[in-house]
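Duplicate of #3305? Posting structure anyway:
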């Protein structure tokens, strides 16, 4: 408990000492009360200070119960509520999928007046990530493709797949599809066109169901579906977890990665084991936020690359809006322009490919330093596959600072579309005349939120890395010393993240 008290004190301190900024309307340039460099230095020093405070308070190496929990499944009403909510949300998700496809195919071609683009790019892609990281992995019950496939299995029986997944393939297809999704979001000219979006949804539907039929749903989801992997990653930060007793009865046959972590106390957040386990062995637990990141789980190389790529792509999304990226484009333009196709699209594509590679290279380099600083008590492979979870709070914090205003302002477009999803002039529930309130958030609030979120996220990452190091080394001194390279990386990324977020606001 003492280590979670220390983390709580640090998080509250970050909120208490958040800087005040005098701002004008959001989207306009305004002057910070002090130079931006002061904010960067202050944020970096805060992260460094948190490192030593966390190191002072957290000294024990525990292998038992890691954090306090409350089992919702011990109450019969809790079990009933979860099952009813799962059925209800599942049916709603199927209805939304039907709306997305039909509004895209036959609705208006105006993206802002069509339900499909607004819901996919704002409500779903941005909004559901926040819900998953705060509440839990609701994508397990709101994934319409999984819900439909489960109904299909209830009618025709369990389906285990027609062929085995090649072991060497690991989860690299999910990495490739995630990069393709990032490319569509940032580069593809028709990504917001309703008809094109509907066609992409149909292609994704047939790909997902085909993969489930060919390899089995659990194998495909955990190896080939980028959104399942992404939301499963975010859910490790959340306040709930799925846990089963007697893990040896199920995890030895699991295809979703449990065999990588058989030494851990319990099976946590594995949907495959949860589905195959009798109700009496199941626990739905409330837990402290971020607690699920520091259990010491290991992942495969592909999943490690996926985790770092998730951080890199959202960072690139922010970097692409800065003047620095414009300068890079100008520098590369003479080399790219003679090539076939759009030079701007080519440069953006190179960025989407190269930025994750650079991030992974830096992460692997730092992991090598951590191994040497631990005097061999942690191998480079173990560090790479375990410490990647310490990057999750950073990714979530940057996602919040980058997309929050977009969700609050542009996300209001979904309100009139509830009444008129096809753009036919309907007014089904009386909201078609709703006007977007652009004053709901201003630049001052956006900047304060960014500073607090990024600093708090990096503090939680420092905490997570330290707890993992404590569990994997033989002494507190070695654990502290081994984390100096990770601290340097986090301090550097704190400053870089704040700089990126500040550019559209202060310039």
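Output from current build:
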């Amino acid at each position: 408990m003492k280590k979670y008290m220390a983390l709580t004190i640090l998080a509250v301190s970050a909120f208490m000492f958040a800087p005040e900024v005098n701002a004008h309307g959001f989207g306009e340039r305004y002057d910070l009360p002090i130079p931006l460099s002061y904010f960067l230095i202050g944020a970096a020093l805060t992260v460094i200070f948190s490192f030593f405070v966390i190191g002072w308070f957290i000294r024990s190496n525990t292998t038992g119960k890691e954090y306090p929990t409350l089992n919702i499944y011990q109450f019969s009403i809790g079990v009933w509520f979860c099952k009813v909510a799962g059925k209800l949300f599942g049916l709603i998700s199927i209805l939304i999928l039907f709306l997305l496809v039909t509004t895209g195919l036959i609705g208006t071609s105006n993206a802002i007046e069509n339900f499909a683009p607004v819901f996919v790019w704002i409500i779903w892609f941005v909004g559901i990530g926040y819900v998953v990281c705060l509440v839990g992995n609701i994508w397990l019950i709101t994934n319409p493709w999984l819900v439909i496939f489960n109904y299909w299995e209830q009618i025709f029986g369990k389906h285990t797949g027609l062929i085995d997944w090649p072991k060497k393939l690991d989860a690299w297809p999910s990495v490739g599809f995630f990069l393709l999704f990032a490319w569509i979001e940032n580069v593809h000219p028709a990504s917001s066109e309703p008809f094109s979006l509907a066609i992409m949804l149909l292609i994704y539907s047939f790909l997902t169901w085909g993969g489930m039929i060919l390899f089995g749903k659990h194998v495909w989801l955990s190896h080939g579906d980028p959104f399942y992997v992404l939301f499963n990653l975010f859910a490790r930060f959340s306040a709930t977890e799925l846990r089963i007793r007697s893990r040896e009865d199920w995890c030895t046959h699991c295809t979703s990665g449990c065999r990588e972590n058989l030494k851990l106390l319990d099976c946590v957040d594995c949907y495959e084991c949860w589905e195959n386990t009798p109700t009496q062995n199941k626990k739905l637990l409330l837990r402290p936020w971020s607690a699920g990141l520091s259990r010491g789980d290991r992942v495969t190389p592909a999943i490690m690359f996926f985790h770092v790529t998730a951080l890199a792509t959202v960072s690139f999304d922010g970097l692409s809006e800065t003047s620095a990226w414009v300068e890079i484009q100008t520098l590369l333009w003479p080399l790219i322009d003679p090539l076939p196709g759009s030079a701007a699209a080519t440069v953006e594509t190179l960025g989407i490919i190269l930025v994750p590679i650079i991030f992974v290279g830096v992460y692997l380099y730092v992991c090598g330093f951590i191994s040497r600083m631990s005097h061999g008590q942690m191998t480079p492979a173990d560090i790479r596959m375990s410490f990647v979870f310490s990057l999750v709070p950073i990714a979530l914090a940057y996602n919040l600072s980058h997309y929050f205003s977009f969700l609050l302002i542009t996300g209001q477009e979904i309100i009139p579309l509830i009444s008129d999803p096809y753009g036919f002039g309907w007014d089904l529930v009386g909201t078609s005349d709703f006007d977007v309130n652009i004053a709901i958030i201003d630049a001052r609030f956006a900047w304060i939120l960014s500073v607090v979120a990024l600093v708090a996220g990096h503090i939680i990452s420092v905490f997570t890395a330290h707890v993992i190091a404590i569990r994997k080394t033989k002494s507190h001194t070695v654990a502290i010393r081994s984390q100096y390279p990770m601290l340097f990386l986090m301090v550097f990324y704190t400053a870089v993240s704040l700089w990126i977020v500040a550019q559209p606001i202060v310039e």
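Confirmed duplicate; merging threads. Residues 1-28 have pLDDT under 50 and may be disordered. Residues 322 and 503 are 6 Å apart (CA to CA).
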